[in-house]
Structure formats: C-alpha cells, structure tokens
C-alpha cells in the first residue's frame, strides 16, 4: 500500500480506534450499498461458504447494518453481516435487531470476527481522523480481508445525497467513486466536501483530485445543453467527456445511476 505512515490506530489490549459521532439515518448508505452489490456480486456468488460482511462503525443505531444485509442477500441468500462498534452502549442498543445472519459486536479496526470477511464497509468512520492516521488504518483493514475481499471506505452527507468512497483490495487502493442525487448538485465539485479523509485536504491546486474536479466541472458546463433533458443526461455526457483524459473504469450503466468511478492511481495524493 506504499510508504505513507503516520500515527496508527489507538488502543492497546482493546478495540482499536476512536468513538465516532454516531450520526446515522435510515437509507443513508444506499448509494454505496447499491454500488457494492453491483460490483462485488461476482465475488459474493463464487465465495466458498457464507460470505461475511462487516459494517464497521455503524453508529448510534443499527439501520445501516440491517440494510446492508438485505441488499447483500439479494445477491447471495446466505450472506452474513456483523456490525462492529467500539462503543459498548451502541452494541447493547443494537442487540434487539440481531437475527439469523446479523450480529453486533464490540470492536474496532482489529475487526473481531472469525475468519476473513469478504467485505468491510467503513462509512463516515475515518472523517474525524488526521490524514496520516488513515493509511495505517487502511493497511490494518486490508490485512483482514479475504483473498478476494473488498474494503469500501468513504463519506456521505447525513441523508445520503452525496457520497465519495475509496475501494481497496488486500493489495491496497483500487478506485474512487463519486455518487450523488443529481438534482442536488449545482456542479460536480460540490462533492469535494464529501471526499474521504485521504483526499479531502488534497483538493488544492497541484494535486490530482483537484485537477479531476476542475475538469469535471468544465465537462459539466460544456454539457449544459443536455440539462433540459435531465440532470442524468447531463451527468452522463460530462462523464463521457472525462474519459478522454481520466481513467474512468465504469460505463454508462453506472453513470446513469449518478456515479463515476476512477482508478485510484489517477487521484492518489502526491508525496
């Protein structure tokens, strides 16, 4: 994953990490979950035995874990979800929602589940950390993944209209996805406020993510004639224009969902 290191996860002899604000709302992570179900479905289907997913830092209420299980089970009927929280009161409050295939345990970045999970989702968890702490956490979590596992780490607004996440495999970062309710955007760079911690402070001139958002805004402006058709048509046209200069790794089917996914190498922070 490279040589970026800083202050590591906290905690010795107990859960690793810090207690988050815990803010959560039903259906907040629908865009991330929809993307996970679409792109990680082949790995879910071919996995030997019931695939385990971890909802890391699910917050003060267990809605996101409950919803993740329902969405994964559309792809794999025996999928299991473990909600992991560092705050014991949150774990206790979630227990009434536990059922077959859904459990809640206390823990942190050590991910205290048996075996290696096929998916770890960490949404709105690392936003409170200093940037140098993110890299060791990524390494820690990627080290817990199954061979074909996926870590999805990102940030969204409180009702899930705007979301940006990084997808990582055991080897490290792979892609960055920008997703939005298109009617809520004035321009694509509105998503900058939801960049994950590894990128948010890099949205300055000279950094790749800043150049990408600048080009995206220019493509969006050039696609203004498509706005009367729909925001979706305008977004799709703007993303298509980006593909000439940026390694966009998905296609129109995802773009029509208000998404675009770009190879991590193109947006990675400069040393």
Automatic annotation (TrEMBL):
One of its GO terms (biological process) is methylation. Coiled coil: none annotated. InterPro entries: SAM-dependent_MTases_sf (IPR029063). It comes from the Bacteria. Residues 1-16 have a biased composition (Gly residues). GO terms for molecular function: methyltransferase activity. Keywords: Methyltransferase, Transferase. Residues 1-28 are annotated as: Disordered. This is Class I SAM-dependent methyltransferase. It comes from Streptomyces durbertensis. The lineage of its organism: Bacteria, Bacillati, Actinomycetota, Actinomycetes, Kitasatosporales.
């Amino acid at each position: 994953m490279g040589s970026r290191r800083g202050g590591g996860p906290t905690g010795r002899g107990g859960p690793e990490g810090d207690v988050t604000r815990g803010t959560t709302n039903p259906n907040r992570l629908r865009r991330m979950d929809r993307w996970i179900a679409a792109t990680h479905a082949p790995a879910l289907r071919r996995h030997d035995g019931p695939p385990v997913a971890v909802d890391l830092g699910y917050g003060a209420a267990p809605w996101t874990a409950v919803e993740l299980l329902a969405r994964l089970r559309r792809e794999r009927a025996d999928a299991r979800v473990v909600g992991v929280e560092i705050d014991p009161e949150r774990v206790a409050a979630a227990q009434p929602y536990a059922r077959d295939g859904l459990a809640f345990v206390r823990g942190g970045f050590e991910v205290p589940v048996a075996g290696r999970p096929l998916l770890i989702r960490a949404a709105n968890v690392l936003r409170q950390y200093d940037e140098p702490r993110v890299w060791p956490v990524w390494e820690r979590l990627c080290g817990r993944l199954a061979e074909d596992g996926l870590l999805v780490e990102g940030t969204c607004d409180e009702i899930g209209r705007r979301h940006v996440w990084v997808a990582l495999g055991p080897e490290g970062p792979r892609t960055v996805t920008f997703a939005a309710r298109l009617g809520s955007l004035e321009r694509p760079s509105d998503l900058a406020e939801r960049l994950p911690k590894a990128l948010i402070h890099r949205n300055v001139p000279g950094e790749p993510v800043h150049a990408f958002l600048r080009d995206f805004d220019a493509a969006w402006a050039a696609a203004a004639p498509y706005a009367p058709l729909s925001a979706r048509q305008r977004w799709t046209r703007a993303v298509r224009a980006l593909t000439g200069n940026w390694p966009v790794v998905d296609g129109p089917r995802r773009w029509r969902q208000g998404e675009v996914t770009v190879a991590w190498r193109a947006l990675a922070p400069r040393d």
